[in-house]
Amino acid sequence: MSAADTDSSDASPTSECPYQDEEFWFEDGNVVLVLESSAFRVHRGVLSRHSEAFRNLFSIPQPMDVDKIETIDGSPVVRLQDSSHDFRHLLQAFYDGMTAQIPTEPSTRLSVLAALLRLSHKYDIVHIQEATLALLKPMFPDDLPSWLKCGVLGRSRTVKFAPGQEIEAVNLFRKCERSEMLLVALYWCTTLDVHILLHGYTRADGIVEHLSTDDLERCLVARERLERRSAKFNREQLGLGDSHRPTCRDTAKCSSALRLLWACAGTVIRRAQLPDSESSMRLCFAQAIGDPTSLLMFGLCRECVRYVKGMNAEFDEQLWRDLPGILDLELEVPDWLAIIMDSNPPSP
Prior knowledge:
alpha/beta, two-stranded antiparallel sheet, 9% strand, 348 residues
């Protein structure tokens, strides 16, 4: 933590008093941390116990002239250059533990975890950083089965991003050097609307996150590669033209059923306001055919059910293998090929 991140002596004791935080203003607190317009009266011992950076901060000698020491309600003031939103979540982790303050609602979970990862990395709080990364891992996995469980475009019951949060995740994984989680975060970015990719995402604390120029180019190029791959696969799948497929009981009926399923996938995209693209259609279609019972209800024969599910499983596995190359990402993960080989996708 650099000197630019803190200011414990320059502010005048007559400075305008910030708002006392409702949750973290302890009467027996012995230091006031000021971030933006919020003040947190907390315990130096608690913060020092969790972070050497705070131990070092609180050990900085104070001016001999007490009139030059800024105080609020008798406690010395330390000003930090972080967002109050992020720091409040860090204090919740310090005082209440990680589990107690992680929301169960998927749509808000990522913003909380991002705040924790941002500050635990900055202040070198290893145990919180590792715990946060473990909670983020199901959202940004490095194995095929876990990736498939994330659902359409990363939106499942346990994983839900506000459009653009993937950009925040990419920048965090870059900062923390977690290349194995960066891969999927970049892939999710390729599914974003171009406007969001270009103009960025506004975090919960009001700061706008943008991809770096290199990552933006990487995602736009990969987006085109994925579109071409998905378009080719979609045509083959709808055509049922593979000479290796099993004999269909009623080709005309099954082709009609597939097109009806395709139309349903398009409806899902429009209602969910997902990007109108070949890749989105393929992903929504893959989710639609995930339940063999539903396929039979639409009128597909059992041979075509097995064939279509097998085609999609092969496509997913090959895409997973090729993803580092599609994204022009040289992963610093020596066992990446082993991770891929050990991934056993669900059998069709």
